[in-house]
Amino acid sequence: MMIASQLVRTAEDPGAGQFLGVDWGSFVVVFLVALAATVVIVCFYALALRLLSLGSPLDGSDERAPKPSSATAVAVHRPPLATAAAVVCIAICAAAVLYGIWLIIPQFH
């Protein structure tokens, strides 16, 4: 009988016993998941940019080595594996962003 009265009281006042009627535990879980997802997406994007910068004339150059002039600069090509890995990283970022948009917009469900 006491459980039934608690259920009725909870149904009548869903925010009872919580500050401002917010389930703060769920709020913290959502915040932590969003923070972790943001960090992962930013890291993948930064890795993609770093992979795309491989093979640039300033990549790994020694400061003591003479700087080539623009007329004598040797064209260094990016390794194909680095290009493929950068495309995969950008695809992961795009997929994560699109999935987040899909979760936010209820018409997509």
- Overall pLDDT confidence: 82
The fraction of residues in strands falls at: under 5%
Order of helices and strands: HHH
The class by helix and strand makeup works out as: mainly alpha
Main sheet: strands, sense, barrel = none
How many beta-strand runs? Answer: 0
* DSSP helical segment count: 3
Uncertain stretches: none
Q: What would you call the shape? A: elongated
Rounded Rg: 26 Å
Distance between the termini: 40 Å
* Helical fraction: 55-70%
Topology, pairings included?
Blueprint: H1 2-12, H2 24-52, H3 80-104
Helix pairs in contact: 2-3
In short:
The protein is mainly α.
Structure description:
With 109 residues, this protein is mostly helical. The two termini are 40 Å apart. The radius of gyration is 26 Å and the shape is elongated. The chain has a domain at 23-57 and 76-109. 4% of the residues are buried. The chain has helices spanning 2-12, 24-52, 80-104. The longest helix has 29 residues, at 24-52.
What attributes does this structure have?
109 residues, mainly alpha, 3 helices
